[in-house]
Design goal:
Elements: H1 8-11, E1 17-26, E2 37-45, H2 49-62, H3 81-93, E3 98-104, H4 119-132, E4 139-146, H5 153-166, E5 175-181, H6 187-204, H7 210-223, E6 238-242
Parallel strand pairs: 1-4, 3-6, 4-5
Antiparallel strand pairs: 1-2, 2-3
Length: 247
């Protein structure tokens, strides 16, 4: 683990911190014939987000890309490998940036009917499990989800209600807002897409891209994890949770 990382215990000494949380998911469709699904969140102090957005755009320009070019795992190519490696290094070198992912190794074997749960309900339960660990007392959070569909706003509001209630946050002082956004408009939704895509690629056991494999090796090197197992519950930089079933 890198020495610059901030532990949750250290963060708890800071009262009244505001954080922005940016989320995305991959392989989450019920019948896509892909075993794993994963959700991920990147978060940072609210006061740091503009500088982080600015630096991510500068990295694009340094590598000959347009600043509006969307960072996406599916767009990874060998031609821009140096750019993606710089993004990974920036993430690990910046103590304000944090990532958590929840992974279902094989969504096809989940007995959702026994749990009286639809796949759509599972999707939002996983978001609850993704976000609940991030939230800390004496801090407040503004959470942004990539738009799933035109009918999802009610479920997003329900997700916020459950998060508030589970943290006894009835006045919404901790979870201030959960809002849907379009990923191409928010730099850190793109970073969440990129990181969660890399983790899911590992869990799919794919070997189809030398560039993607090189990126994954860099993530393993910088994080100190093999990406296939749970990290410590309160790991603060690269937090991985393997979700084994409906509870």
């Amino acid at each position: 683990i890198q020495i610059f990382m901030i532990t949750f215990a250290e963060r708890n000494t800071e009262n009244d911190m505001e954080y922005t949380v940016y989320c995305d998911e991959t392989c989450h469709l019920e019948h896509d014939n892909i075993k794993p699904m994963a959700l991920g969140a990147v978060w940072c102090p609210k006061e740091a987000k503009d500088e982080i957005f600015k630096r991510l755009r500068e990295i694009k320009i340094e590598h000959g890309l347009k600043p509006t070019c969307e960072l996406k795992w599916n767009a990874v190519s060998s031609a821009k490998l140096a750019y993606y490696i710089d993004v990974i290094n920036y993430f690990f070198d910046n103590q304000d940036l944090h990532f958590r992912t929840v992974i279902v190794p094989d969504k096809s074997v989940l007995n959702l009917s026994e749990a009286k749960m639809s796949h759509d309900s599972l999707y939002y339960k996983l978001y609850f499990d993704l976000l609940k660990t991030i939230i800390e007392p004496k801090s407040s959070y503004y959470i942004y989800l990539d738009i799933k569909d035109t009918k999802s706003q009610d479920k997003v509001e329900n997700l916020q209600t459950h998060l508030n209630q589970s943290h006894y946050d009835f006045d919404r002082n901790m979870v201030k807002r959960i809002q849907q956004v379009r990923s191409h408009e928010i730099e850190l939704v793109g970073l969440a897409d990129f990181l969660v895509g890399a983790i899911c690629y590992v869990h799919r056991g794919l070997q189809t891209s030398t560039a993607k494999l090189a990126i994954i090796e860099k993530i393993k090197e910088r994080s100190g994890y093999n990406l296939l197992q749970n990290t410590l519950y309160k790991e603060d930089k690269m937090n991985i949770f393997i979700w084994k079933g409906v509870k």
